[in-house]
Structures are given as structure tokens and as C-alpha cells.
What does this fold into?
Amino acid sequence: MMNLRLGFLASGGGSNLQAIIDACKNGRLKAECCVVISNNSKSKALKRGKSAGIPTAHLSTKTHSTNEQLDLAITEKLEEHKVNLVILAGYMKLLGPSTVAKFRNRILNIHPALLPRFSGKGFYGKNIHKSVLSSNEKFTGVTIHLVDEQYDHGPIIAQKRIAIMKEDTLESLEQRVLSHEHELYVNTLRQIASGEIDLGSIAL
It folds into this structure.
């Protein structure tokens, strides 16, 4: 059993954050949500955190003059709240070397495609689903992976394959994939908490 102390980084709506908060509240997930950090001061993720009584912080290049200072500030904020697992929930920035090193093999990201396909800089949100549909794929999916110094890179922890319907639009596919993101993130965290998934054995 692992006593999860979760720190979140999010840039936008924070629906995955909300799914995890809800799972903690209703007892599906035994974890403590310790801090929500966003690079966007107006993000809904910060509002979700505040509404749930979770400490929040806006940390970006608007609050710190260099990427190095920002990286250290993120590391320090996570340490301040004694976080032992970092959750990227729609965080649009590449993590800096300080944060990656301090929390190596303890940072998770969720990606709305079956990695390693449709990945890398620029592949996020609607851009991914547009590419999937234009490629006439029969399946798409969701991937949770450990984070390293590159975009959408690092050992894969869990994947869910999702069929693409003939009638799918960009919006319908995006919403269906998002619902699977919520489910997969919560279930993966439950498995980490129970010891069923050992991040140390997955890490390279």
C-alpha cells in the first residue's frame, strides 16, 4: 500500500483533476490531493482546486523571469506540500530538469492517443483527434506514462483502446476519449495505491 499525496499540474479545464478529486471524496481512491499548480492564472483547474479546498498556485513565466527559476519554484511548491506523486492533468508545458529529477519515476501524464503514435510537441487536445480522424484510424485510445525530459515520452503504465465510429465527429470523439481518460486515470492511481502497479519496476 502506498499513501498517495498527489500534486497536480494543469493548464486548462482540469476535468481529469476533477475526476480524481471526486474519486478521493467518494472513497473510490485512497489518496490526498495536496496542491494544484497552473501556468494559467485563469484556468478552471485552479478554480476546481479552490472549490475543493486544495491549496493552489499560479506559477508561470509571468511569475518567474526565467524557465530555470520557474522550474525550481514548481519543485519547491511540490516539496512544500510533501507530494510523492505528480499528476499532469492537461499541463501544456514541458517540465524542467529540476522537477523531473526530483520526482523521477513519480510523474504521470495522460495522453489522448495510443502512444507512441500521435505524440510530441504540438500534439495535444483537438490537434490529436483531428490527426487521428484524418488518418482514417479504426482505433484511438488513452495512454498513461511516466514523464521524462521529452514530450509524451517515458515508460507506458496503462493504455485503453477506443474504437472510432463511422459517425464520429471531432467533438464526439474528443468527449468519448475524455470520459475514458477520467476512468483510466482513477483506476491507474488505485492500482498504484494498492501496490498492484509498482512504478519502480516500470521505470527505466
